[in-house]
Specification:
This protein is mostly helical. The chain has one domain. The protein is built from two helices and no strands. The relative contact order is 0.18.
Length: about 70
């Protein structure tokens, strides 16, 4: 259960980081594409953290129910 909560905490931390990030206008095309790539990678990490958190919750429930 601790690992489940840790995964959700990591995903929440990453979400809060990108939510507080200031948008900088008038970037060059290279910087915009690099930032887009970073955002897409971080979105995938958040999705994986959510998935792992759910899997840990299911695993801890199965252990609790002794399956």
């Amino acid at each position: 259960m601790v690992l489940c909560l840790a995964e959700f905490a990591v995903a929440g931390y990453i979400r809060s980081f990108w939510g507080d990030e200031k948008k900088v206008p008038l970037k060059t095309e290279d910087k915009v594409s690099a930032e887009s790539l970073q955002v897409s990678h971080n979105m995938e990490v958040m999705r994986l953290c959510d998935d792992l958190g759910c899997l840990w919750a299911v695993a801890s429930l199965l252990v609790y129910l002794k399956y």
